[in-house]
Amino acid sequence: MFVIIEKVKKEFFSYNHINELHRKIDKCLRIFSAITLILLSCVLLFYYEDLIYLVLIALIVFMVLDYMVRAFFEWKYTQYPKQSILTLTEMFLILIAIIIVIEFKLLGSY
């Protein structure tokens, strides 16, 4: 008993918004995350250099939030609601890859 999920063609490096509400929420989220990451990195770089890894954690949190919003809109507002399963799976695979890189120190010491 397998579930077949229809593959939806997406453009590479495009936003692929589900509807107008998704476009607005995604735009606000991207602006908020950009401002937050810039301010956080400046503050940490000049005042708390030993806590610079918090920028990476904030980046991961915003990435997860972006994927969750996309999955919600795919689940609620498209004709292919099972596409949200693929989106969440992609998010978890990226998180696992990030954790492996950090845990095994593949980018060097930090």
TrEMBL record:
This is DUF4181 domain-containing protein. Keywords: Membrane, Transmembrane, Transmembrane helix. The chain crosses the membrane at residues 28-47, 53-73, 85-107.
